[in-house]
């Protein structure tokens, strides 16, 4: 690593330098795992509140041509509303610098600084999520430093980062059968138990992040209370029989970007276009005040990829410009304490 590089560790979001925040705010789509959590922490800390566990941000910076500091990479060890998040990596480097020779010394320094900052609590690092070469470099270095094995050959999650704008959003009419009446809106308190069922169903397909029924209910209450989940409810014509077919959660948001973090359709209501209808409506609502709506879509989920492409998320159709690819790599479960996200 160059002598012009520096590593800084912050355990308060209020101490993160302005130049770091400016970098994150300059790319809110890519920083969706970092910036919203910093902003939330700053709000809490400024009111004298603290998260249930210590949070840490480790920043690798260089000096630009004008002599000012410039962020290159950042590790984020943060807390979610259910449990601890994995280590999120924010990257501010251009693609041509994402080479092993450039990344390796910087990631080694970041990982060493994090291990020291954790003060023996190495089990906190149960997984890492970031762009492919960065996640792999962190996993290798973390295993080398701590002796805790990684699961790089069996990643927890592998996905593309896509986004939708007002310009790319595509309108499409998706009728339901005549006997079904749709209702799409933000969830309210009366929806909590059905939203919890959807959260539980979503988590059951998201190993290792399985939720208990109580955990799913806690998540649903949080999402509803904070107006971060929309529902697609269906009523059978001529009856009072009604149920939630789909949900969309949007829980990592910043000034100009909203991130869809959960899309789930109940097995009883699949193949009716519910997810597409709901995602499109949510994007329409969010893009009234946001510039972009971002989401991660798994490589092994072609059905979701097709839905998001039809809605207007870029880079998911044939012949489109490739997107950033991200990987979540876990560490051996016997050596860590699993969190949730």
From TrEMBL:
Q: Ranges for the N-acetyltransferase domain? A: 182-341
Q: Which GO terms describe its molecular function?
A: acyltransferase activity, transferring groups other than amino-acyl groups
Q: Which residues cross the membrane?
A: none
User: One Pfam family name from the record?
Assistant: Acetyltransf_1
Kindly give the InterPro entries that the UniProt entry links to this protein: Acyl_CoA_acyltransferase, GNAT_dom
Record protein name field: N-acetyltransferase domain-containing protein
User: What organism is this sequence from?
Assistant: Leucocoprinus birnbaumii
């Amino acid at each position: 690593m160059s002598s012009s590089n520096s590593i800084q560790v912050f355990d308060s979001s209020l101490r993160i330098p302005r130049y770091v925040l400016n970098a994150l705010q300059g790319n809110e789509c890519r920083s969706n795992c970092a910036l919203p959590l910093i902003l939330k922490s700053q709000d809490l800390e400024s009111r004298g509140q603290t998260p249930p566990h210590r949070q840490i941000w480790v920043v690798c910076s260089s000096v630009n041509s004008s002599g000012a500091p410039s962020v290159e990479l950042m590790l984020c060890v943060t807390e979610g509303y259910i449990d601890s998040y994995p280590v999120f990596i924010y990257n501010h480097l251009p693609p041509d610098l994402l080479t092993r020779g450039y990344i390796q010394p910087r990631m080694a320094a970041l990982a060493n600084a994090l291990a020291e900052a954790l003060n023996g609590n190495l089990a906190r690092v149960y997984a890492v999520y970031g762009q492919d070469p960065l996640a792999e470099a962190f996993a290798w270095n973390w295993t080398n430093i701590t002796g805790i094995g990684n699961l790089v050959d069996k990643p927890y999650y592998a996905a593309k980062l896509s986004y939708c704008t007002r310009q790319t959003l595509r309108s499409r009419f998706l009728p339901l059968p005549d006997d079904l009446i749709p209702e799409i809106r933000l969830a309210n308190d009366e929806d909590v138990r059905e939203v919890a069922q959807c959260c539980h169903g979503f988590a059951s397909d998201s190993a290792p992040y399985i939720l208990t029924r109580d955990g799913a209910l806690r998540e649903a209450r949080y999402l509803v209370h904070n107006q971060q989940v929309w529902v697609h409810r269906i009523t059978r014509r001529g009856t009072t029989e009604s149920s939630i077919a789909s949900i969309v959660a949007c829980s990592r948001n910043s000034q100009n970007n909203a991130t869809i973090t959960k899309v789930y359709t109940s097995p009883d209501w699949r193949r009716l276009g519910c997810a597409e209808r709901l995602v499109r409506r949510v994007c329409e609502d969010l893009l009234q005040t946001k510039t972009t709506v971002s989401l991660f879509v798994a490589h092994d989920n072609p059905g979701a990829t097709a839905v998001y492409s039809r809605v207007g998320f870029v880079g998911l159709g044939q012949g489109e410009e490739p997107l950033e690819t991200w990987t979540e790599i876990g560490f051996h479960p016997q050596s860590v304490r699993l969190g949730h996200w």
